[in-house]
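Q: What would this chain look like folded?
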Amino acid sequence: MPDLRVSDLRSDHMYQVCLDEDGFTECTYVSSLHLVEDKNRQLKAAIRRRALNAFVEHHSNHAVCDV
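A: My prediction, written as structure tokens:
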């Protein structure tokens, strides 16, 4: 289950947005809360790319060739 966290970085007038999903965490920064939903979609896409790359890398290192 995805876990979206938004933290107020008072010193910079920014917000940190982090998404935890499928054992991966991606974070970014936004200047306004209205940008969080768009960043959430971007973070999900980044996590899916990382998960796919991890899957491909794992299986390419453990490939069985029976030719």
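The helical segments are 36-61.
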